[in-house]
UniProtKB/TrEMBL annotation, chain A:
This is 1,2-phenylacetyl-CoA epoxidase subunit PaaB. It comes from the Bacteria. The lineage of its organism: Bacteria, Pseudomonadati, Pseudomonadota, Gammaproteobacteria, Steroidobacterales. Gene3D superfamilies: Phenylacetic acid degradation B. NCBIfam families: PA_CoA_Oxy2 (TIGR02157).
Amino acid sequence: MSEQRKQWPLYEVFIRARSGLEHKHVGSIHAVDARQAVEHARDLYTRRQEGVSIWVVRSSDIVASDPGDAEALFEPAKDKIYRHPTFYSIPDEVKNL
Amino acid sequence: MYTQGLDSLGADCLHQATDAVTLEQRFQSKVDADDRIEPKDWMPDAYRQTLIRQISQHAHSEIVGMLPEGNWITRAPSLRRKAVLIAKVQDEGGHGMYLYSAAETLGISRDELLEQLLAGTAKYSSIFNYPTPTWADVGAIGWLVDGAAIMNQIPICRCSYGPYARAMVRICKEESFHQRQGFEIMMTLARGTPEQHRMAQDALNRWWWPSIMMFGPNDATSKHTAQSMRWKIKRFSNDELRQKFIDITVPQAEFLGLTVPDPDMRWDEATQHYVHGPIDWKEFEEVLKGNGPCNRERLETRRRAHDEGRWVREAALAYAEKQRARETQAA
Amino acid sequence: MSASPAIVAASAQLRFRYALYLGDTSLILAQRLGEWVGHAPALEEDLALANTALDLLGQARHLLSYAGEIEGKGRSEDDLAFLRDPSDFINLALVEQPNVDFGHTIVRQFLIDAWQLELFECLQGSSDPRFAELAAKALKETRYHYRFSSGWMVRLGDGTEESHQRVQDGLNALWKFTGELFAPGAVDEQAAAAGLGPDPASLRAAWTANVEQVLTEATLKKPADVSYRWFGKRHQHTEHLSHLLAEMQIMQRTYPGVQW
């Protein structure tokens, strides 16, 4: 497993395209530390002015939901249609609602 | 091009998933519904292996593909051309990185993939085993090789595997300048001095057939097209894409006043397509086997860069480890 | 340079030569970095070196075009880059030194980045607005180059035994070329007198402080200054420049007067 240790760790990269927008996941890069990860992300993912801000995070530090839990996690929201404005019927003549 | 090796590999893993029928059915119906498969989703092992092979071949092709054109960075004939060429070769490195990044979501590391490349066990597009003896080759690569690559890649933007499709969208967007700069070089040469015109024609002669072969073997001899199509990793057959490329490119050559080196090439009114002469598949097989003009040189160059860079990569890791130890101590 | 009491109007000849001096320096360094593309120690570094090469090439193109404009004889950036003889180039000798390995390359880059940081900072106040404008843009680029090269100086210097040795070797080999950065050559001395650019000697203190700080962090030893100085800016080049130019200029020399 000495081969394993020789790799530069993987970082996930998030870019804010411009002020007012959220950071969006764009891919990953390899780097030995956070400073270098930002530089590598800049060199790879912003060659055409794609961003004004970069986040990097060690891939191994990301906690993700299990796709196997997707039904339990997300389907219960499916029938709560009363959370959406279209659920309510209001006469057309009533304005500003 | 990136599919060429695929057609001869991977048959063994196709039938291992029989015990997971429902999972497989659910997976396939997702694919059929044009839903995307994401890294942590269940997927048949054969699908995973096929993707790893295809994406890494594609990534290796980008990385090896830096070399034939990189050969001209120091000798580009104007400062403008030099800047464009550096940016283009850099893009290819970047595209390799996007693709390795997509492959890594399938549970294999970039270092493992690079080891396969350097050991000679992984394939990359044979086109990059041809030499670039003149400046015109840089033009021909941009025009023909990138043209063929784009033709191959655009359908992959809708590939069923999310990370691969997203990488491909980014790549296609960035590559649109590659083909145009290549055509511009060819145009300048074709309209230049007689010597330049000859240079352009020679380059077209060198790159035409290899470009045509980039689309891989004929459909009749290509074994796995059907499975890849069912998985929506592939959306058009080799021959369909090849035909599309020829139909688009022959008129471009005519515009340049250059002659495609195929005496049998003719326009067929009935089908509204060009008909091309026989492709020398023996040559294709030979280059694929490693007997092309530059196979050995390309791999040796990559190996040398990897070996000579080892101390640098190790030093960076060693420094980062020391830093972490210092921070822990200070805390 | 702002301290210069008597600002002499800069002659066209002087502005021409000053543009060449800065342009040649950026061009030759870009050419060296271009040699790395496709061969770097990691893909990430291929991209980084290419980015720096492109910045420097951009600076060179601006400066050489401007030089041609000032000269007024219809010479383009390409004429100046590809059709001058080695003895006509006035780049700093440091930038023509070969890549050798990643360690040498990083040392060369770091020493010049630290110098360009000070140079462009001052040049923003040039009496010639075109130089000032270029400096403002180049300064931003240089800050990133410096971040890259100083980061690698520390990583390599304080990395493994091998990397420490290699980068120290690079430093020992290249140090003798740093004297030129601050010694008067005919160009920058006159440029300083005319308020065109900084007095080279005035950049020394800040450069030295910067370099010493990074060398300390990198656990590297600063080599002793040597008496002999190469003077690229006085047309005294090392043997490497003519090889570099032979390669760079081959197309334009082989096919004179042709459009590419």
